[in-house]
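cron nightly-structures :: item 1 of 1
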Amino acid sequence: MPPWQDFEPFIVSGLALGGVYALSGVGLVVLYRATGVLYLAFGAVGALGALITWSLVTRAGTPGWVGWLTCVVVAGGVTLGYGAIFGPALAKRDPLVKAVATIGLTLILYGVMDLLWTTSGGQARSLTLPTDNGGFSVGQVQVTWTQVIALGAGVVLTVGTGAFLRFTKLGTAMRAMANDREITATLGVPVRKVEAAAWLGCGVLSGIAGLLLADLVALDATTLTFLVISSLAAVLIARLRSITVTFVAAIAVGLIHDLLTPITSLSNYRDMTPFVIAAIALLVLSRHQVMTQSREEA
């Protein structure tokens, strides 16, 4: 086992990564509760926005803020467009169709990225945010402002989304739609507008997550596309309901993933972290639910 000092930098990076996973997970939960759709294209949309940003800043020489704004706009636009076109039809389909409907969008976007930003020839890309240039030290560990922003964004978004769903009319409408879409519509709630707001919000969050992950992890279409699996693990642990549980699970996934890095015998298996944690959590929760039902019947 490596000394404790070897783990300290990975605590910081794990918390930052967990913050981005939490940000992504909250977006997935809100969209699912409003529409019933599990947005598996979240990572691919964020990756597309990040690669467009890299092209604008590196090749076209545009100011950085223009590229970052473009990433968010593109991600929000793609997600909103998909929701506007396919959302009404998906609302009438069964849960399984809703769950896998966005896989097609994922594959299309991945193909576009592979065509426009080919990885052949060993071309290396990096997207560095200005917040990497500053920070502070905690003991012997250097913390960048990007890492602080990543964790802070997850915290703020979790708290803010909880307040939004609880205290605003739009949030109340989203919670009502999660319980019964048809009854909510009969009460005069503009269902299409509420769904459009959920799609747009999820798309904006995918763009922000794409920018942060491109800086914290790597600017690679494959990596960014499938990092949504880590967020999905947190969402499944929360059973697509609680954003608070989603946040805690996302932080745990990020921490455990990075803390395995210094352990040589386990570092090659760290990408399995989301699957293992999700499987254990679901087994424990299922067992607890069965025991609770048995006691009630008794």
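cron nightly-structures :: done
The domain at 4-118+137-297 is CATH 1.10.3470 (ABC transporter involved in vitamin B12 uptake, BtuC).
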